[in-house]
Amino acid sequence: MEGFRLWPGALDAEAQSQLVQAVFGALGTAPLYRPQTPGGRPFSVQMSNLGPLGWVSDRGGYRYQPTHPVTGQAWPAIPQMLLDLWAATVGGKRAPDACLVNLYRDGAKMGLHQDRDEADLTAPVLSISLGDAAQFRIADGEGRTRTLRLTSGDVCALTGSARLARHGIDRVLEGSSRLIPGGGRLNLTLRIAR
Ligand code: MD3
Ligand code: FE
Q1: 143 pLDDT higher than 90
Q2: Nearby residues of 116 by Cβ (< 8 Å), 6 or more positions away
Q3: Is residue 179 part of a domain?
Q4: Whole-structure pTM over 0.95, yes or no?
């Protein structure tokens, strides 16, 4: 698919554990929580954010905001490692201002959706997968759907026509990695929200 770029194993074991350490450290001040859909159902995925803006969902809808909805505190900074990874992969003039943290445990998954809450829908999204492997699905505009396995250390960039493609996580292969304390799959998505 045009605009979908995957770097399998872009992060080695050392980089992966450094990243997990940095993110779990930040989660001490911005704890994972389970947002509600606008319809009032809890997400199965636990979430938090890093950076000036964070993606949130509640009965008021989807939006980006500067503070954690539970603690009211500013989101912690995006680790430099991630800013460097953005520069090395998608590059461009702007740095990301939002990093959504998704933790999949206990059968959590994510239904097919589009990411369209960002001000500039042509700006790339960069995704980093850590921990358990997952079955990722992405659909093109013609109803063709592609599934691929995302494993720990994989990085993918969404630009061009892939940027508005419907995508989701069908299932996580629980116990396939021991990287994450307490188990599960951690996905980080770097974005330019505003
Ligand atoms: C394709 N996350 O946070 S990452 C999301 O693994 C999200 O947690 C999934 O979908 C996860 O919105 C998939 C790969 C990904 C991320 C963003 C995309 C694929 C994308 C944006 C547009 C198209
Ligand atoms: Fe998405």
Answers
A1: no
A2: 164
A3: yes
A4: yes
